[in-house]
């Protein structure tokens, strides 16, 4: 069975923005409050960082729980990994996730500036300079037959869409308008030449957009 490249649980505002401007160490999403985009997932019973009992069930919970299913590797852009730009000046910085990153697979960070790979718990970060097709090839090999998740951010997802490499997308549209930031799309209709689309509203107020190749 073919390995899929999947975008899962990627959040945008109603005007298509996935992150804000002016990212810093203290503000991974720049000027945007991530709670405005991610509250739906944090409310579910299967939210991986949940420390108290409870949480919602239903559609949102199912999609949160499905996040890790059959995923053998992840690809992300450098800005998802951290706020540094240019050559790496701080090799002590190991991402926003602490000693137990949630990925639990090999992760391929796209960057023009090399640094050595390192492992935290059961996640190994590799820093790779290449076009989307060559990075995907490396990730597929590391995934050992499982699917590859394209984690973001929006600019990285657009690169892989423009290269026609994405097989499925799950984009969660939150009912907030942000006005400015890093945009995934002007409208989801931009993808309908290549993808089928099913739009599923959730009682939480978000709308799940499920795309799969035609």
TrEMBL record:
Domain Bacterial bifunctional deaminase-reductase C-terminal: 62-188
GO BP term, pick one: riboflavin biosynthetic process
Segments forming a coiled coil: none
Gene3D superfamilies: Dihydrofolate Reductase, subunit A (3.40.430.10)
Pfam families noted in UniProt: RibD_C (PF01872)
GO molecular function: 5-amino-6-(5-phosphoribosylamino)uracil reductase activity
Entries under InterPro entries matching the protein: DHFR-like_dom_sf (IPR024072), RibDG_C (IPR002734), Riboflavin_Biosynth_HTPR (IPR050765)
Protein known as: Deaminase
């Amino acid at each position: 069975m073919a390995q899929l490249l999947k975008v899962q649980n990627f959040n945008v505002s109603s005007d298509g923005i996935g992150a804000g401007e002016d990212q810093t160490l203290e503000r991974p999403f720049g000027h945007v409050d991530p709670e405005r985009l991610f509250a739906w997932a944090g409310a579910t019973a299967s939210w991986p960082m949940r420390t108290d009992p409870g949480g919602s069930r239903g559609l949102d919970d199912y999609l949160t729980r499905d996040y890790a299913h059959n995923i053998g590797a992840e690809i992300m852009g450098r800005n998802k990994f951290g706020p540094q730009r240019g050559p790496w000046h701080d090799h002590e910085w190991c991402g926003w996730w602490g000693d137990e990153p949630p990925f639990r697979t090999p992760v391929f960070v796209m960057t023009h500036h090399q640094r050595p790979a390192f492992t935290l718990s059961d996640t190994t970060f590799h820093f790779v300079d290449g076009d989307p097709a060559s990075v995907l090839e490396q990730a597929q090999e590391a995934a050992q037959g499982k699917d590859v998740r394209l984690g973001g951010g929006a600019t990285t997802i657009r690169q892989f869409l423009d290269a026609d490499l994405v097989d499925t997308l799950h984009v969660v549209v939150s009912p907030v308008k942000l006005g400015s930031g890093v945009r995934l799309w002007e409208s989801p209709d931009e993808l309908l030449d290549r993808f089928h689309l099913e739009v599923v509203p959730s009682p939480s107020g978000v709308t799940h957009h499920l795309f799969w190749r035609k």
